Amino acid sequence: VQDLSPPAELSPRAVERRRTLLQAVDGLAKRVEGNDQVATYDEFHKRAAEMVLSGEARAAFAVDREDPKLRDRYGRTTAGQSLLLARRLVEAGVRFVTVNYAGWDHHGKIFDGLD
User: Fold this and answer.
1) What is the pLDDT of residues 47-73, one digit of tens each?
2) H or E segment to which residue 79 belongs
3) CA-CA distance, 79 to 56, in Å (whole number)?
């Protein structure tokens, strides 16, 4: 039978490590099987992937398709283009959008940050 034997001789230590890894994976599989939390996580993960990979999401993130004049009005800066993207996401139906902009939080070096 092809690929039945290992490609190279394995040391006893390597064989033991593989056996230990297999036991760990099997043990995890037994704990996960029938676990509602894992099933729920898998469903959320699947739904999130479908949402992010959808054509609607790709279209909403395609800021480069905006009219160049509008992009200029927002400013060709990280902040300006981030705000334009936020607007596009809201227009696409996203109900909660966060825009991170460096410089707003002055917990440290407040005087340096506000000069």
Assistant:
1) 888 887 888 888 998 999 999 999 999
2) helix 78-91
3) 23
Q: How deeply is 104 buried, as exposed, middle or buried, from its count of CB atoms within 10 A (0-12, 13-18, 19+)?
A: exposed
Find all residues with CB under 8 Å of 28, minimum gap 6, and list them.
none
- CA dist 45 and 12 (Å) reads 39
* 106: its two tokens: 């002055």
d(CA 7, CA 52): 40
Phi, psi of 45 (to 5 degrees): -60, -45
Please name the residues in contact with 38: beta carbons below 8 A apart, sequence gap of 6 or more: 32
Backbone angles phi, psi at 58, to 5 degrees: -60, -40
Kindly calculate the radius of gyration of the chain based on its CA atoms and give it in whole angstroms.
25
Burial (CB count within 10 angstroms: exposed 0-12, middle 13-18, buried 19+), residue 57: middle
Angstrom distance (rounded) from CA 16 to CA 26: 15
Give pTM, 2 decimals.
0.53
